[in-house]
């Protein structure tokens, strides 16, 4: 508990929010967003935190993103498998950073905490031996929590659009996740991306104690 934290963007935290993050035990923050998504912090970031910027998208590969950015599919786990196949090094370096982080918890985040953060959470939980159905249930928590974030930012809730899109594809987010984990050789994929056996062992030790 507290070894890793999945979050939406932390740059809107107030001073009290940063204090709560520290009180939870977090000492390393990994920002999965692209460079052009980052803005200044609303309140000063505590000096006790180490922040690593590790963009997950590889958005300069237009052959890939011209397909996945053209509709709601990017807001669903449908792109996780293709992303892991094409860019295994992107996920591997994030996992290596979590494995090698200093003492304390690690918070990783994208913008909303659903897509990029959801992919990293899926990988971490699977490597820790969590059953696929429980991983899917963890992902589903996002649908419960994001509406409040959308409302706070004056944005439209994307949840109904994404669920409707998946229904049109004859599936659900949970089914996509369970199916992906059933067919994915996770350790081989991450090893192809550069994750070493020592880093994998260190990651499991951090997650499981």
Features:
4 strands, 52% helix, alpha/beta, 10 helices, globular, Protein-Tyrosine Phosphatase, Chain A, 209 residues, 4-stranded parallel β-sheet
Question: Could you please describe the fold and organization of this structure?
Answer:
With about 210 residues, the protein is of the alpha/beta class. The protein has helices spanning about 15-25, 60-70, 80-85, 90-100, 115-125, 130-150, 160-170, 175-185, 185-190, 195-209; strands at about 5, 25-30, 50-55, 105-110. Strands 1-4-2-3 form a 4-stranded parallel beta sheet, sandwiched between helices. The protein is globular and about 45 Å long. About 30% of the residues are buried.
Question: In brief, what are we looking at here?
Answer:
The protein is an alpha/beta fold and 209 residues long.
Superfamily at the CATH H level? Protein tyrosine phosphatase superfamily
Look at the structure and give the CATH class: Alpha Beta
Q: How many helices?
A: 10
Average pLDDT metric: 95
Task: Write down the secondary-structure element order.
Answer: EHEEHHHEHHHHHH
Low-pLDDT sequence parts: none
Proportion of residues in β-strands: 5-15%
> Which word captures the global form?
globular
Care to count the β-strands?
4
**CATH domain fold name:** Protein-Tyrosine Phosphatase, Chain A
Q: How big is the Rg?
A: 17 Å
Number of structural domains: 1
Task: Report the biggest beta sheet as strand number plus sense, adding barrel if it closes.
Answer: 4 strands, parallel
């Amino acid at each position: 508990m507290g070894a890793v934290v999945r979050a939406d963007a932390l740059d809107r935290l107030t001073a009290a929010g940063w204090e709560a993050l520290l009180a939870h035990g977090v000492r390393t923050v990994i920002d999965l967003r692209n460079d052009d998504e980052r803005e200044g912090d609303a309140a000063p970031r505590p000096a006790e935190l180490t922040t690593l910027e590790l963009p997950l998208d590889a958005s300069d590969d237009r052959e890939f993103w011209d397909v996945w950015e053209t509709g709601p599919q990017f807001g669903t786990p449908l792109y996780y498998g293709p992303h892991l196949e094409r860019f295994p090094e992107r996920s591997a370096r994030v996992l290596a950073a979590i494995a090698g982080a200093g003492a304390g918890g690690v918070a990783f985040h994208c913008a909303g905490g659903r897509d990029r953060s959801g992919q990293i959470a899926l990988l971490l939980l699977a490597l820790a031996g969590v059953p696929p159905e429980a991983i899917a249930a963890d992902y589903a928590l996002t649908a419960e929590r994001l509406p409040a974030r959308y409302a706070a930012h004056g944005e439209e809730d994307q949840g109904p659009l994404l669920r409707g899109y998946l229904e049109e594809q004859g599936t659900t987010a949970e089914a996509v996740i369970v199916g992906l984990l059933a067919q994915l050789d996770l350790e081989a994929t991450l090893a192809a991306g550069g994750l070493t056996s020592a880093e994998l062992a260190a990651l499991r030790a951090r997650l499981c104690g």
